[in-house]
């Protein structure tokens, strides 16, 4: 019972509502290297003692704690301290608080002096406190404090002299350091923080199917072909190149073009139907090349400042070696066959799901981890995980935790499109990044509401949204109907609303042909066939992508998630928001209407920026170089997609910032 | 590390955000006997299994758990169940969830049948599930299920027949009951609820100084005098009569009238300066009478349906026996004297504070508990605790916990007026009721904001505000200036905004003389002298108090705290709110302006009540008996304090409710 608990070792100070704390400390908050972590708490005590508090913190593998003193905010009645996480990996922190007898005594002494009261007794009490501290002290401190204690108690020395001695600041500092810590109160829980590489938070992703990268119509592309494209992808300003599964593809039940279950002669099959006689999750599809080709691909990518992200899809084709070697890892039907995936009436016979709760669970889970370790050994530091919400959350928490023990820098992106709670749950149990609902948020209201949730609620502590404009599964109606301007709009939004975003190749060519009306599937999807393209085909938006990615790299304001705020635009077709970093103020306006020009008055949050109501200032459009003289909060904006202008990325010119 | 934890026994279902849960289960929620507790949680799992969940609950001293199945709300993606706490004391509950293989299988079977697919294999899988359940079953279940399993597997029996058997509801029910529970997931924490007597939530308090109850001017009143008054206090409709300390008062440094530190000849002293040569916290002040007189007082109170609340003030006069017997329980100064209370330049020499962290802490804490036990033995079930925020929170948590082990029905009222967080903290660690900021909330906006916080935030789970109109320390300017109407207004507000409220005697006589301008202290305060009064003096509001208290007892809507909602009144001088219970709809309008008549249009929340927009309905003013025919949402109200009408307590007439 609580009562016994407290009667054994009663807390003398109350510590509550510590932040960041997710689900009572069950899950860690997320940061990247170099971030400063602000820890805050409600701390109070009975009576009127002077309180002190601190946050102790350390990387978990370190033995020594470091301390940051907490400061008190009277308006909020809240304590807080900040510390920097300067290393990748798991960190932990704890809040401690105490009443400070010497500081309390010192304040009381001053009060009595102000009230012109005799302090003879106070001085003797102070002497006792100092003498006690001396016992705890070492070396010169010890002797010095003994002397102070004796002096304070010397009634034959004038009070004024002893008071002066008692109130010396160095004495206060010394006494604080020698505080008797036996009665310090520790918060119930030690909390954790996962610190990732900077790229876990700031990166532009480019997804491409290697088999589509040959320049000759019809020829199956290779990793070597894909390698050829790395320089231009890098030149476009992307940071991560993501490859769908590159493993051998099952022979049985291969789907034909456009997901035709009847298959087709020489169908290439879906890369997500992994495994065949020639290999498994740890093999490279023979037609793509060899593991050496892959190593070369990774090396070339690195030379061009690109990181390679690999797909991690835990499912098998019926031909996967595991099916023969470990039938117990699957769902065996009474007739002895292995169950394939299905959602009646739909059948996915090219895929057999894994039974993660098989009796021999540990062997299976270890085998899954082996796959990750294998590709890490080949230079992969980022994994895009396919449908994690269809595998046990406990499995992911275990796998990510185990992998990060040896490789804390590894990044896992959760490709889950499901209800909000499971999506959040996956982020909580360890995924570094998550796909989002961004593709389905197209109106100003939808975008403001959703991005505000991502960046200004508890989600911001653990959920890093990676805003994809499109995926092989999602070609939104907005893109299908809006033409080239729509592609510019959605790219500009993704790239400036979030430090993490991505496109799936073909986007730069404004490919917008859907399988059929009302479908988000691509026509002739690369999931089932090879698509060779002219990457510089007319109408492409390469130049725009390159520019926006450069702006992202040049402006710190676009590299952090939490500095996003939305502001009034008098025309709901134009979304207006601010991204802010020290000396880097961006005001962004995007015309969400791909069909025609829109104009509006936008309201600049002058006070938040630190400008007076009547400020005159210059904003420069980083997209065009144009400079505008703005005055006060309310300013005019006109954006015409038909003349290629879907948005402004306005940087506040330096002088204004200096004025601020 | 979390990963090891989960790898040992991984949860298969996620259970999050359980409510009610206060500070991660550190503190219990509060209820009274007969309440139903709604427990809700986020529950989800990977994949698409059919889930089940339940709340198991019990009084802590019971060994067996009772279960309440949780239901799923698709819109909220939230699970919930309700159970009734039918006994005073500590309760605990836990949420459990699981995936249901048979239900999942059954749904899959139906899907396939709908899709006209062959289910031969499904039937065999079903047979296996049923056979496994048979092993877990007992008696006839066991044999029956064996038969079902065999039948399902009989390939020579037509599929249609076996399908019919498989889909029988009784089978589903049986299988649910025989579920393999080994993999059920339990929520991390078992949570607690403190269940109090109904009176802890619904009561009208009356505070009086026994020494002022003699009817002869100047004579020191006795408990016998006070006893005389119980019938009329009961007739006024009060439920609790609260006495400031009735113990011997210290002789030294007695304050004179109006807190004069120089004292006065035959000063009676402050009842809160407890203890003298003649007795301690467990004694009755000789001038008030004997412990037998007190027992008689309690008995008479009970006969009149009144409960006696005693003041519990843990501080001593310098003459308190403890000071001699246990100087170590106080703060001893270097000169050997006991430190008195002071807040420079103020001195409170008639009081010496207790050192709750003395080395001999347990002896002191036990001695404090002895005081409570002593008065409980004399029939006291309610304690009003003086300044709890100046004593250790850990002490109160211990004391209240220990007392409630033997006397779970005892009620503790926290008299703390301090910052919001410590006030909440005291409620969390065990106080049944709390004083509030009500006296300082006088405008419509202040009242709506504060009462909404009390009744519609997490506070409602643990903080029971007792709205006092006045106390011996607080005579608000509103009462000082507003005259009789002000007293009617504040009484009506307190009594109808909260099931718990109280007045300090003299209020019914509209006593409003302050010590001086700008002070909230009473002139000639009873804290320092005896005040004899004519309780039926002209201008008294006894009739109004009696009526309002009767209305409280007759209307369930006024007996629960969470059913309060505020609604639009077009004149901010008139506060308009609703109190609602089954078949008991109250609409209350109060004119906050004590000086003149105000009129307004109030907006009745027809939809919430269940009436159509164009409803015609009758409301009856329970204060006057007047009936008004109202139509639609917007209706006219005029309240004239100068003609004694400060508010309406409108009850929706039955027909309208039946229509609803």
Account of the protein in words:
Two copies of one chain form a homodimer. By secondary structure, chain A is α/β, with parallel strands linked by helices. In chain A, 30% of the residues lie in helices and 23% in strands. The first copy, chain A, is built from 17 helices and 28 strands. An eight-stranded parallel beta sheet of chain A has the order 18-17-16-13-12-11-20-19. In chain A, strands 2, 4, 5, 8, 9 and 10 form a six-stranded mixed beta sheet that branches. In chain A, strands 21-22-23-28-25-26 form a six-stranded antiparallel beta sheet. In chain A, helix 14 (477-497) packs parallel to helix 15 (542-554). The first copy, chain A, is globular, with a radius of gyration of 31 Å. Mean pLDDT of chain A is 95; it is low at 1-7. At the A-B interface, helix 1, strand 1, helix 2, helix 3 and helix 11 of A face helix 1, strand 1, helix 2, helix 3 and helix 11 of B.
